[in-house]
Amino acid sequence: HQDIDVTHPDFFSNAKQAGYIPPNKEDCGQPGFTRAERQRFEIILSEGRLVDAYRHMHKEQDMESGFSWCGHPIGKYRGKRMRIDYFLISEELKGRIISCKMHGQGIELEGFYGSDHCPVSLELSPQA
């Protein structure tokens, strides 16, 4: 979870849950984008020797189709999107990645097929 993985980093970092005040300030913000969650995610990647396949293939932010979750089309979450669906692979497999794609785009939820999450696909080359 990096700033590049959301459309509005400040919004998600400062989001408040109705009536809930977390005991630890590191847990403040939108679930899925709190400082504590982001730190734990980095530890999981590092200690597990895992690679985020999508970010490995797409180094830059793609504001149109680089997010797998989109907020409700009406209200405060309109236009707010996050990349919260991942393919994590072992470091040994990263050389076999052919493609990793998000199959939804835009705030009108094209390709989301009735869900607030869009499909994500990963294609690997055959083992040599």
Automatic annotation (TrEMBL):
How the cofactor is bound: the record states:
Probably binds two magnesium or manganese ions per subunit.
Q: Which residues are marked as site: Important for catalytic activity?
A: 85
Residues binding Mg(2+), per UniProt: 116-117
Q: Where is this site: Interaction with DNA substrate?
A: 117
| GO molecular function per UniProt | hydrolase activity; lyase activity; metal ion binding; nuclease activity
GO biological process, alphabetically ordered? DNA repair
| Cofactor names | Mg(2+); Mn(2+)
Record bears the keyword Hydrolase: yes
The UniProt keywords, alphabetically, are:
Hydrolase, Lyase, Magnesium, Manganese, Metal-binding
Entry's PANTHER family?
AP ENDONUCLEASE, DNA-(APURINIC OR APYRIMIDINIC SITE) ENDONUCLEASE
**Per its record, how is this protein called by name?**
DNA-(Apurinic or apyrimidinic site) lyase
Species annotation: Zostera marina (Eelgrass)
Q: Which lineage?
A: Eukaryota, Viridiplantae, Streptophyta, Embryophyta, Tracheophyta
